[in-house]
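thought: fold this chain, then report.
action: predict
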Amino acid sequence: MGRYDGKTVVITGGSSGFGLATAQLLVDEGARVLITGRTQATLDSASEQLGPRAIAVRSDAASLPDIDALADRVKIEFGLLDVLFVNAGITRFVAFESTAEDVYDDIFTVNAKGPYFTVQKLAPLMSPGSGVVLTTSVANMKGFPLVSAYAASKAALRSMTRTLASELLPRKIRVNAISPGPIDTGILFKVMSKEAADQTRAEMAADNPMLRFGHPREVAKAVAFLAFDATYTTGAELTVDGGASQL
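observation:
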């Protein structure tokens, strides 16, 4: 018997990184999990890894028609939903003076607008006592260079965590946020050259109180706690950052 037998979970941005790690943890403990992503090849790989208790759906977190279609699919597959982990997001490392309007718009559309409407469309399918977890970032509370638009979008999500928690309280739906710091997901190597990524990674690890990057499974455990175990917690943000934002 798994700890989460019979539970139903949706994870946006669940085909890689700590979204995938969270899906793996929950599937291993008996949950049925639907993951989304924009890249079919990545989704196919994740689906093969997760096995028969997982459903992989191609869905763009920035597209309202895709979000509507996702809600319809969730209703067909699960009926009611126990957990919604709104994790899909993008990062751009751009200096403030070089940030173009289209970059700013892309970041806010994926990181703020998408999550807002994802919760709006899927909340009617959530059971009393269920939980929503949003992915923010320690960048929403510290002034890191090169991520001004990204940090602002994550600060918007932090605000949404509080306001949506208040609005969904009458439905007995909890809303909390997970705030990761430097996590070893490989994302730096996707948005930077290898040389720049290696240098940034070394500097970030050296500046961290624990002198290392976190593992995606460490984030997954925190997400599972907020989603299932934190039954007297709503509107909160849990940092998983090696103490970087606290020490």
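thought: worth noting. Residues 8-186+216-236 form a domain with the Rossmann fold fold (CATH 3.40.50.720).
final: tokens above.
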